[in-house]
Amino acid sequence: MNIIFLIAIAIIFQTVIFTSLVHRDLVEKSLPEAGSSSPFQDPTLVQNAESEISSPSKIRNNGAVLVIASVPLEEKQVVALWTELECFTGSASHVVISTAYWAKPTMDLLLARVRKKIPRFASGQVTIEAHFYDNERYDVGLWCDALQGLKEGYDNFALLNDSIFALREFNGVLDTLQSNKSLSMTSLTYNVDKENRTWLESVFRGFDGEGLSVFMNHSCVPQTHQSFCKNLHRKNKAKQKTVQRLRKRCITTYHEVSMAWQFPRPQEQVLGLYNGTVPEDMKSDETSRFPTWVVHAPYWKEILVGKNDFPAAKVNQESMIATTEDPRLKKCTRFLNRSLMDEIDFSVGKRSITY
What we know:
Strands 1, 2, 3, 4, 6, 7, 8 and 9 form an eight-stranded mixed sheet that branches. By secondary structure, this protein is an alpha/beta fold. The protein has twelve helices and ten strands. Helices cover 39% and strands 15% of the residues. A hairpin with a 5-residue loop joins strand 6 and strand 7. This is Nucleotide-diphospho-sugar transferase domain-containing protein.
């Protein structure tokens, strides 16, 4: 009896040991390798969770957005916009073209070509869209309207308009801003006024978050604001050009010239990349006495482009770039099929505001 009892106990003990070993082997085979996810997590759930975390609508995009104010009234402005998209967007993660409602058919055609032909857009490296608004406050209004929906989503911002052709690949406005943490505002060009104060031109500027707040507080104002100089009126047709000139100067003084002076430490926070001020020895009646490069073709050609590899030219200056077929535009129109111009109906353009 005792022998039978002992044999039974031994059999039970061996069974328990065998079962334990089998269970351990199964558990070890089911355990993840080093660095893998837990076997108790549904891979689909993990993937979905990661997708939600990385969704652009869920988190802040640490890249940069480029906002281009565009009023495509003529072929030159469409070509200028194209050159900018080819050559000035390398440091942006997203591009917004801010334009008037009437320009939607033009932008639909343009964006379809851009997304297909320009490599950085075709690959998704840079995304692009157009926003449409009432154009009642010049370029500054188009910038401000677009920024209302963008200011919380990016760390750096570039503001550009379609008044310049891009001549070569150039990312200096954003790259300089991002590489120097003390800077809050950069610009393609700077000038020095008669009081020896430095100011930055508005055609192509960059801002960090702090700089953008300064810009928006200063310039994103209602169209009734005094800075739009509506108090200047012409009394008769003979005075029309004079009033237009005075109003343009008034608007420029507030929204462009004085912008750099709104920063508490402008010498540390503000930087222009190219000197736009024409030296005295280049001013003459035969060329131009205008103090900046924008209407001074000799200074632009000989100094800015010739010596400093300046990346832009003014659209409205035929003495710089006479036609959209100019060879100097080739570097930034490599992917442009000129048939696009035949598809655009320029007759729908509306010059809704004048100085």
